[in-house]
Amino acid sequence: MTVAKETVRDEREQYAFHDDITYLRETKAGLAEATVREISETKDEPAWMLEYRLRAFKHFESRAMPMWGGDLTKLDFSKIVYYRKPSEREEKSWDDVPDQIKKTFERLGIPEAERKFLSGVGAQYDSEVVYHSVREDLQKLGVVFMGTDQGMKEYPEIFKKYFGTVVPAEDNKFAALNSAVWSGGSFVYVPKGVDVPLPLQAYFRINGQNTGQFERTLIVVDEGASLHYIEGCTAPNWATDSLHVAVVEVIALPGAKVRYTTIQNWSNDVYNLVTKRAHAHAGATVEWIDANTGAQLTMKYPGIYLLGEKAHAEIVSVAVASKGQHQDTGAKAVHLAPNTTSRIVGKSVCKDGGVATYRGTVRVAPGATGVTTSVRCDALILDEGSRSETYPYIDIQEDDTSMSHEATVGRVSDDQIFYLMSRGMTENEATNLIVQGFLEVFTKELPMEYALEFNRLIRLEMEGALG
Questions:
Q1: pTM for the full predicted model
Q2: Helix/strand/coil for 183
Q3: Residue 189: per-residue pLDDT
């Protein structure tokens, strides 16, 4: 084996390993009302949350599977374990996290990243948050960053005011599933006028076989405040399916600025079916920077609802689909107020028979005058067996709207490959460089450390080393 292949294998192991641990508690495989009650009882939740869960479960049972998007016919809910408790409680010091779990996050580089360039870190392992911490100076300013379960108990007024208001339990079948069995996630509150200078990061790790991970993230950024929240995800590769069904709710109150960055790198046995949405009030800006690699099927369309005048939405969505993968991704911008603006950029790369689908929506409601919006989606296909699809949906119900839409589909140029190879590159190195240039619209939006990490993921994907 060549040195290069050894290096690729070693780098892949950074994400693909799994731990053999004994869980403190786990539900039986399969989903029933008793499962929902068991999860709520284990967490010692208030009565209103149990009622919310049960209502969501009934909706999940009654609602049909979506007939659009990726192939969900092989998804078997009866084989999933819906709750696994890996540790006793959420810790504020890495020294208190159980050794084996701590070693996992050290191997993934999370504590080191926290020390170097983050305002705080949360870490979830299967169903529970095992660690959450935020810088002391930000705590003194009133910044809250903790697990969602803790947020419900320690900040009940804020939590209950906003929970489920952006993504109702009845929104779609998978939002209902999350609402019924949710566990973990991040609860963030930034007080009025507070600027969080460095990003907060949450990292979600699936470890157990046939595990379902159902984190629920609620972010409230008050008037004139600002926040950059970064989310990362990985899982080992099992021979059987795992399920990731998250819900993210972001509330940007008047004049607030929020950036939500996701770099997801699931293994090829994961169904990644999530609902992520933000409300932008008057003068607020919400930026959603979203990247997807890995997973056998991803269905994810970050949405921003512009509720107040002069609110602004920016969504950059990129996806890389390789062998056995379908990336069904996109974005939504819904203009409900006058003089609002939005920009959507979608980029996809597919190789080795992968399928990349862009599914986007722009809607301008009656009375939302003076709207300016633009959409650009570009696809790069690297071989004959791969496929790219585009399904834009534009619904403009107000004449006073400025709208632009561009879309391109292309292949890597033989001339470009030949030129780079004539300068000493291998064909794979040349292709990788072209792909990284194609995705630069995403990487230039990242902090330097994350741009380097994302480029490394792309290089591993091009080598066929992920999944």
A1: 0.89
A2: coil
A3: 98
